Q: What sequence folds into this?
C-alpha cells in the first residue's frame, strides 16, 4: 500500500512546528467532528434507556409477573404468561440451536480449513443477514402449515435458525485461538482426533464458547418478527409447546400499536423487563470476557 | 546406577501422564473418528440446507403470483387484495427510500465514532464507548419501535419536520403535513439501528490497517487528520464500503421498528415526510390476514424479493470486508 507523499500539502503560513494555520484548523475541525459523532451516537442510547426506566418502572408491579393480561378497560393484569411463553420458546430455540451451532463451529475450525469451509462460512454470514421476517414466513409454511396449528415449537425453530450462524462463527473463532501445540500433544499421545477435540480443545475454549452462546441467546431473545406467524401469541396460560404461545416481544408489539393508554403502560413495562434481560446477558458476557465478541454478531 | 536421573515424566504435569491412561481406550474408539467428523459436518451443512430450503420454499409458494403477474409485479403501483391486483412498487420504493435516508444519516456518524474509538479515544474510555455501541446493537427492534412511536416521532413532528419544511421545502422532498410518522421517521429509526453495525465493522477494518502506515505519514509531518485520511481511510476504503453495504442489508430487512413508524400506506410519494410502506412491513401486517391463494402467494413473492436482495447485498459486503481483514491475527480487546 502506497501513500502519496505530495498529498500532504503545506498550505497557509508556517506556524508553530511548521504546521500551517489552515491545516491545523482543518485538523481540529475533523477531530471535533469525530468526538461529536461519538456523542451523537450514544445520545439515543441514553435517551432510550432513560425513557424505558422512567415509563417502565412506574408500571412494574408484582401483578406484572404473576397475572395474565386483562381485557380492555379493566385495570391491572400482567404479562406472566408472556414471560413464561418466551422462556419456553427460548428454551426450545436454545436446545436446537446451541448444539448445532457448536457442532458447526467445531467442523469449521477443525475440519473446515479449506474451500468447503469457506463456502459454509460464507453461507453462515449470508444466513445471518436474512431478514427475520423471511425466516418467520418460511417457518410458517414449513411447520405451521404442515402441523396445521401455530405453536411454540415452530417459533423455537425459527429462532434457532437465527441463532446457529452466530454461535457457529463465535465457536469457530474461539477454537482457532486454542494453540496448535495442545492438539499436537494430544494427537502425539495416540489419542483419536475426535477425543482430542472433545476432551482437550473444547474445554480449553469453554469460556469463549459460552460467551458466544449467550450472545446468540441475547440476539434472538428480543426478536418479534419470526414469532408473528409461528408462536402467534396467546392471551392465556399455555404450557404445551404444540399450541399458540404468548411471547414478551409479541405482547409488547400488540400493546404498543393498540390505542389504549393502559396497554401502552404495559408495553413500556414489558420493554423494561425485556431490556433488562438482554442488557444483563450482554453485560455478563462483557464482564466475563475482556475480549469483544461483538463482531461475530453482525 | 547413574547418579543423575531424569525426572519422572509425572513431573511434566498431570496432563502428559494422566491423560493417555484415561483417554486411550479400545481400538474401536479410533473408528469413531469418521462418525464424529460426519456428525459435525452435518451440523455445519444444516446451514447450507436451511438457506436452500428457505429459497426453495419461498420460490414454490410464490409460484402462483409469479405466473400471474410476471415482471408487472415489480412495476405495479396498485396493491388491491379485494380485486386481486398486486403490484409491489410502493413497498420497494418505501424500503429503498427509508434505507437510503438511514444510510445518509448513519454513515458519517458511524464512521466518525469508529475513528473516534480507534484513533482518538483515550485508552481508559475505549472499553466504555465500545460497550455502549454494542448495547445499542443489542436493543431489540420492537423496543426501538416503541420508543419511535412514543418519543422520537413526536419530537420529529414538533421540531425536525417543521424545520425541514421551512428551510428545505423548496426541494419538494419535504412537503405536506408533518405527521411524525412516515418514511423520514422510519429512516431515522433505521439510522440509529444500523450505526452500531456499520461502526463496529468499520472499527475492525480500520484496526486492520498496520500501525506503520500511520507512523510513516505522521513522521512526514502530517497532522492527525491527514494521517487518518491518507493512511487509514485510503487503505481501509474497500472494507468501509463493505461495512456500509452490510448496514444497508440490515436496514432493508428490518421489520418491527419500521412497521411501527412508517405509517403503513402503500403509496409512492415524493415527499419524505409522507407515510409509506416497506417490503418487510407489508408481510408483518398482512400475512396473517391474507385470504385467498393469490394474496398469500403475492406476500410470499415479496418475501422472496427481500430474501434475494439481502442475499446479494450481504454477499457483496462480506466479500469486501473479507478482502481487508482476512489473514489478520485475532486481536485482543480493542
A:
Amino acid at each position: 500500500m502506497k501513500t502519496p507523499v505530495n498529498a500532504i500539502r503545506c498550505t497557509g503560513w508556517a506556524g508553530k512546528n511548521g504546521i500551517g494555520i489552515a491545516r491545523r484548523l482543518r485538523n481540529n475541525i475533523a477531530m471535533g467532528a469525530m468526538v461529536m459523532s461519538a456523542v451523537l451516537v450514544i445520545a439515543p442510547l441514553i435517551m432510550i434507556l432513560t425513557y424505558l426506566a422512567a415509563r417502565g418502572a412506574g408500571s412494574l408491579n408484582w401483578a406484572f409477573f404473576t397475572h395474565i393480561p386483562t381485557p380492555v378497560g379493566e385495570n391491572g393484569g400482567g404479562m406472566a404468561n408472556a414471560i413464561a411463553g418466551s422462556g419456553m420458546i427460548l428454551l426450545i430455540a436454545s436446545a436446537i440451536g446451541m448444539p448445532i451451532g457448536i457442532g458447526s463451529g467445531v467442523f469449521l475450525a477443525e475440519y473446515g480449513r479449506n474451500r468447503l469451509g469457506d463456502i459454509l462460512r460464507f453461507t453462515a454470514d449470508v444466513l445471518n443477514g436474512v431478514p427475520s421476517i423471511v425466516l418467520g414466513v418460511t417457518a410458517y409454511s414449513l411447520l405451521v402449515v404442515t402441523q396445521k396449528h401455530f405453536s411454540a415449537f415452530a417459533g423455537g425453530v425459527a429462532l434457532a435458525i437465527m441463532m446457529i450462524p452466530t454461535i457457529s462463527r463465535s465457536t469457530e473463532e474461539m477454537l482457532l485461538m486454542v494453540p496448535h501445540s495442545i492438539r499436537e500433544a494430544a494427537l502425539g499421545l495416540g489419542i483419536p482426533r475426535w477425543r482430542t477435540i472433545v476432551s482437550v480443545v473444547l474445554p480449553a475454549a469453554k469460556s469463549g464458547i459460552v460467551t458466544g452462546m449467550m450472545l446468540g441467546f441475547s440476539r434472538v431473545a428480543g426478536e418479534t418478527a419470526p414469532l408473528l406467524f409461528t408462536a402467534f401469541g396467546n392471551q392465556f396460560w399455555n404450557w404445551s409447546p404444540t399450541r399458540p404461545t404468548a411471547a414478551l416481544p409479541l405482547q409488547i408489539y400488540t400493546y404498543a400499536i393498540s390505542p389504549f393508554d393502559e396497554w401502552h403502560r404495559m408495553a413500556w413495562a414489558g420493554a423494561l423487563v425485556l431490556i433488562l434481560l438482554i442488557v444483563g446477558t450482554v453485560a455478563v458476557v462483557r464482564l466475563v470476557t475482556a475480549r469483544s465478541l461483538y463482531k461475530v454478531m453482525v | 546406577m547413574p547418579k543423575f536421573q531424569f525426572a519422572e515424566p509425572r513431573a511434566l504435569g498431570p496432563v502428559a501422564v494422566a491423560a493417555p491412561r484415561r483417554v486411550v481406550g479400545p481400538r474401536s474408539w479410533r473408528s469413531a473418528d469418521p462418525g464424529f467428523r460426519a456428525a459435525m459436518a452435518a451440523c455445519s451443512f444444516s446451514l447450507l440446507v436451511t438457506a436452500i430450503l428457505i429459497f426453495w420454499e419461498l420460490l414454490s409458494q410464490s409460484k402462483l403470483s409469479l405466473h400471474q403477474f410476471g415482471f408487472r409485479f415489480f412495476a405495479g403501483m396498485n396493491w388491491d387484495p379485494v380485486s386481486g391486483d398486486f403490484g409491489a412498487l410502493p413497498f420497494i420504493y418505501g424500503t429503498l427510500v427509508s434505507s437510503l435516508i438511514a444510510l445518509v444519516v448513519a454513515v458519517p456518524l458511524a464512521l466518525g465514532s469508529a475513528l473516534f474509538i480507534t484513533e482518538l479515544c483515550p485508552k481508559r474510555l475505549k472499553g466504555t464507548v465500545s460497550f455502549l455501541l454494542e448495547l445499542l446493537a443489542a436493543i431489540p427492534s420492537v423496543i426501538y419501535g416503541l420508543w419511535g412511536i412514543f418519543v422520537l416521532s413526536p419530537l420529529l413532528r414538533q421540531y425536525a419536520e417543521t424545520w425541514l419544511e421551512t428551510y428545505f421545502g423548496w426541494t419538494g422532498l419535504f412537503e405536506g403535513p408533518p405527521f411524525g410518522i412516515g418514511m423520514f421517521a422510519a429512516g431515522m429509526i433505521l439510522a440509529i439501528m444500523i450505526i452500531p453495525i456499520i461502526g463496529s465493522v468499520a472499527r475492525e477494518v480500520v484496526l486492520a490497517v498496520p500501525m506503520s502506515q500511520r507512523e510513516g505519514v505522521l513522521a512526514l509531518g502530517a497532522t492527525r487528520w491527514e494521517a487518518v485520511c491518507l493512511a487509514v481511510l485510503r487503505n481501509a476504503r474497500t472494507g468501509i464500503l463493505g461495512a456500509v453495504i452490510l448496514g444497508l442489508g440490515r436496514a432493508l430487512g428490518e421489520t418491527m421498528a419500521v412497521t411501527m413508524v412508517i405509517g403503513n400506506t402503500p403509496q409512492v410519494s415524493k415527499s419524505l415526510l409522507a407515510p409509506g410502506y416497506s417490503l418487510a412491513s407489508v408481510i408483518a401486517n398482512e400475512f396473517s390476514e391474507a385470504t385467498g391463494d393469490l394474496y398469500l402467494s403475492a406476500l410470499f413473492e415479496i418475501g422472496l424479493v427481500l430474501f434475494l436482495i439481502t442475499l446479494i447485498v450481504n454477499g457483496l459486503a462480506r466479500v469486501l470486508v473479507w478482502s481487508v481483514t482476512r489473514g489478520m491475527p485475532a486481536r485482543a480487546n480493542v
